[in-house]
Amino acid sequence: xxxxxxxxxxxxxxSGTSMVMxxxxxxxxxxxxxGQRVADDDNPNGYFEHAAVKRLASDSSWIADAAxxxxxxxxxxxxxLPTGPQYRVILVERDLDEVIASQQTMxxxxxxxxxxxxxxxxxxxxxxxxxxxxxxxxxxxxxEMISLDYREAIDQPATAAETIAKLLGIEDAADAMQAxxxxxxxxxxxxx
Length: 192
Fold this sequence. Notes:
Blueprint: E1 5-11, H1 17-26, E2 70-74, H2 75-78, E3 86-93, H3 96-110, H4 119-138, E4 143-149, H5 150-155, H6 157-168, H7 174-179
Parallel strand pairs: 1-2, 1-3, 3-4
C-alpha cells in the first residue's frame, strides 16, 4: 500500500469491519489502534479501534499519524474524514436484520439496553446511515472505494481477499488475508 494512503474500513457496527481489519493485518497492513477495547466474546479476534475516531467531527489533526495503516471508522463518522490524505475505503455491508440481531446479542451479553427503537425503525435508520455514507464517499475525489458484502466474504474469502488486495496494491498478500477469515465467527446468520 502507498505509504501516505490510509486504508479505511467502514460499515455499521456489527457488520464485519473487525473481520476485514483482521484480514488487512494478516496482509501486512498495520492497524491504527490504541488497544483500549480488547477482544471479548463478541469479537474474539479484537475490535481494532482507536478512540480518536470518535472525535473526528471536532478534531482530525491526528489523521496524518494513520498514514500507511488501516483505520476502522463506523459509518456515521466516515463523512468526517478530512481532505488531504488519500483514502482506500472498504465499505462492509451486511444484511440489516443480521446487524440488528448481532447488536442485540451483544447488548444482551453485556446486560445493556439498546436504543429502544422498534426493529423496523432501527432498520430504516441503519439503512439511511449506510446510504448517506456511500453517497458521501462516492462524491469525494480523495477516495477509492469498494463495497464488500460480509456474507460473500465469508462464503468466498479468496475473492474478497483478492478484491481488497487489488484496491490496496498488495496483491501478493491475498492468500494471507484469505486465511484470516473465520467462518465460525459468522453468528446471527439469516437463513438463505
